[in-house]
Amino acid sequence: PQAALEFECFRAQALGGGNSVGDQLPPRGTLDPGAYELIGAVYRQCEAAEPFYEGSEFVRPRVGIFSASWPGLDGGKSEEGAVMLCEEMHYDCAVIDGLDRLDDFSVLLLPDTTMVEPGLAARLREFIRRGGKLMVSFRSGFTPDGQWSLEALPLKFDGTAEKFPTYWRARKALLSAVGSSDRVFYESGMNVIAGKGCRVLADRVLPYFKRTAVTYSSHFQTPPVAKPCRFAAAIAGEGFVYFADPIFREYRQTGNLVVRQAWLALMHELVGHAPFGAGLPSTMLVYPRRKGSSLLLTLLHYVPIRKAIDIDVIHEASSFAGEVLRIAENPLEARLWPSGDPLPRLEDGGFELPAVKGRLLIEVPKYFERLAPTQRAKRKSAG
């Protein structure tokens, strides 16, 4: 569908990339005119937006996601889940590895199976010492031979949960995000105990027994027992949060909503709200770029729907009508491109979005010029 191709091409363009879309050429050597009519309809829109992006550069993201791929361990689902969470909750992110610079990130995610060898462990210790934050899950933080290498995170491990699916029982810090019900997690997680200076955010509750083809109860999981076990499900400490379960793979595989709720609450605690688009629906994606002193924002609203057994499809563009765009530092104006029409500014500093479908191009004039004195003041205060 045209809407699906628009999403693919507009997203690449917003990220500073290019597009190359083609069609199969049959042996008879005749191109399909309908395919090129579709491509042309989308490419004309990309061409019209080129002046908006020309001369722009990416805004250094606040969130760095370490690649979780390791032979035989993951297959990419964990880092995909991490990227999905960042995009849905509007945190600009980049997938990195141990050779990337870490200084400019506010928080680093180590999703599920990120192996940490001694050299990287030393860099992560320095990152925390300088005020950076870590979010770690499951087997991340171990060396390839199974040794815990993140000594800055005082945690004690005792194998993995033998009975699962297990449950989370939230403590006070996560009650408002997760709720008071025991929430299921389908894959086996690590058995972990909080060390000195740490606080438990959620306890692990075991099922009555492990579900098998012979012993089973309910549809997908055995109910939880009355009392939590001695191991934690989520722990916070100085500059870090640790999840005992493979939450990123879980989110990619099952869409477990409690993952997103807990993850977002703890991201707020670690680094605050997303700078561009906090509070927008998860189906709306926001991509920032910088052009001189101006901030450029691309907003996309294309919703994939599972109507078919084999594939998720974007059939149509969705509207932005009535939603509110929030931008860090509360700029005084934001303008639609190419018309230059100002977005209505609300009393709380947000901007009301128009009844446009699919893509919005927004310019915030002199955003970085206005931001510079604030950043200097923060650096002076921190120093």
Which descriptors apply to this entry?
22% strand; disordered C terminus; nine-stranded mixed beta sheet; single chain; 383 residues; alpha+beta; globular; 8 helices; five-stranded antiparallel beta sheet
Rounded to the nearest angstrom, the distance between the terminal CA atoms is 54 Å
Tell me how many strands there are: 18
**Pairing-aware structural class of the strands and helices?**
alpha+beta
Oligomeric state, counting identical vs distinct chains: single chain
Which value, in Å, is the CA radius of gyration?
Answer: 23 Å
Shape: globular
Number of helices: 8
SSE succession: HHEEHEEHEEEHEEEEEHHEEEEEEH
Percent of residues in helical segments? 25-40%
Major β-sheet annotation: 9 strands, mixed
Low-confidence spans: 379-383
**Beta-strand content estimate:** 15-25%
Strand arrangement across the biggest beta sheet: 3-2-4-5-12-11-10-7-8
Mean pLDDT: 93
Topology:
Layout lengths: L1 H13 L18 H21 L3 E2 L4 E4 L10 H12 L4 E4 L10 E4 L7 H12 L3 E5 L17 E6 L5 E5 L1 H7 L4 E3 L4 E5 L4 E7 L26 E6 L2 E4 L3 H8 L2 H15 L12 E8 L2 E8 L22 E2 L9 E2 L14 E2 L5 E7 L2 H16 L1
Helix pairs in contact: 1-2, 3-6
Description of the structure:
The protein is an alpha+beta fold. The chain is 27% helix and 22% strand. The chain is built from eight helices and 18 strands. The chain has helices at 2-14, 33-53, 77-88, 118-129, 172-178, 247-254, 257-271, 367-382, and strands spanning 57-58, 63-66, 93-96, 107-110, 133-137, 155-160, 166-170, 183-185, 190-194, 199-205, 232-237, 240-243, 284-291, 294-301, 324-325, 335-336, 351-352, 358-364. The chain has a nine-stranded mixed sheet, with helices on both faces. It has a five-stranded antiparallel sheet with strand order 1-13-14-18-16. Strands 6-9 form a two-stranded antiparallel sheet. A hairpin with a 2-residue loop joins strand 13 and strand 14 (294-301). Helix 1 (2-14) runs parallel beside helix 2 and helix 3 (77-88) packs across helix 6. The longest helix has 21 residues, at 33-53. 34% of the residues are buried.
